[in-house]
């Protein structure tokens, strides 16, 4: 997402992200880092960690993401927000925090550095999950390249 | 601006997205470090910077808490 100013770029980045997350959770984004370029990454997470998902409350979502505000040459801009690291995790709610494991239907697309894996999760009931493994780590404060997981799924309609 | 239950002030965008203060960011890191690693934020930062997790840096709980470090800076 781009903007004429850094704050506009941040706004144009966060608003659709919040809308997308609202498809699966009522939690709001919590951010830190402000609205201008910084030597350290801007960070976002959900207000409650983990966020309980769905009306059956069996699953929970954790989100942490690092972004940078950069100058961008192109028709839009000149400012944009670039994600440099993320960790989206779905785990059992209220339990030992065990992460869901892919069971069947694994399908990988794209280069190994950014592979999309479609999975079915045992006991997941009405949910269907897409899992994206992403190894892309820049200068966001961690000292090693970090494999992180990204999971997306639809929220059940309210009862 | 709005007042949170913990008594600190935070900004709100779109009436939804919350911008944490430095104190709230540190409190967030502290809560999650306590929950997943049974240590304080200060203990985690010291251990992280000392390389105490280098033998197994991909532990999900360590990675998760480490990614919260920017909230405390």
Summarize the structure.
The complex is a heterodimer of chains A (159) and B (73). Chain A is mainly beta and 159 residues long.
Question: Greatest contact pair?
Answer: A-B, 34 and 24 residues
Average pLDDT over all residues of chain B: 80
SSE succession of chain B: EEEHHH
Structural class of chain B: alpha+beta
Contiguous runs where pLDDT drops below 50 for at least 5 residues of chain A: 101-159
How far apart are the first and last residues' alpha carbons of chain B, in Å? 21 Å
Head-to-tail CA distance between termini of chain A: 35 Å
Specify the number of helices of chain B. Answer: 3
Please identify the structural class of chain A as seen in this structure: mainly beta
Biggest β-sheet description of chain A: 6 strands, antiparallel
Order of helices and strands of chain A: EHEEEEEEEEE
Compute the gyration radius of chain B: what is it? Answer: 14 Å
Helix share, percent of chain B: 40-55%
Strand content of chain A: 35-45%
Helix content of chain A: 10-25%
Beta strands of chain B, count: 3
Strands of the widest sheet of chain B, in order across it, are 1-2-3
The total of helices of chain A stands at 1
């Amino acid at each position: 997402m781009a903007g004429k100013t850094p704050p506009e770029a941040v706004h144009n980045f966060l608003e659709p992200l919040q809308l997308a997350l609202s498809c699966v959770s009522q939690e709001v984004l919590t951010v830190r880092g402000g609205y201008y370029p910084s030597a350290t990454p801007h960070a976002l997470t959900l207000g409650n960690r983990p966020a309980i998902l769905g009306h059956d409350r069996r699953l929970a979502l954790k989100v942490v993401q690092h972004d940078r505000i950069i100058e961008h040459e192109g028709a839009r801009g000149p400012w944009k927000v670039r994600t440099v690291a993320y960790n989206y995790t779905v785990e059992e709610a209220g339990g030992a925090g065990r992460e869901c494991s892919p069971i069947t239907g694994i399908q990988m697309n794209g280069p190994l550095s950014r592979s999309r894996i479609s999975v079915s999760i045992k006991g997941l009931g009405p949910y269907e999950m897409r899992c994206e493994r992403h190894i892309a780590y820049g200068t966001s404060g961690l000292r090693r390249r970090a494999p992180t997981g990204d999971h997306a799924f639809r929220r059940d309609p309210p009862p | 601006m709005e007042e949170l239950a913990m008594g600190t002030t935070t900004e709100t965008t779109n009436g939804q997205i919350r911008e944490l203060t430095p104190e709230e960011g540190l409190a967030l890191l502290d809560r999650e470090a306590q929950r997943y690693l049974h240590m304080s934020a200060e203990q985690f930062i010291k251990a992280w910077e000392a390389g105490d997790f280098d033998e197994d840096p991909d532990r999900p709980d360590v990675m998760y808490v480490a990614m919260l470090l920017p909230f405390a800076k």
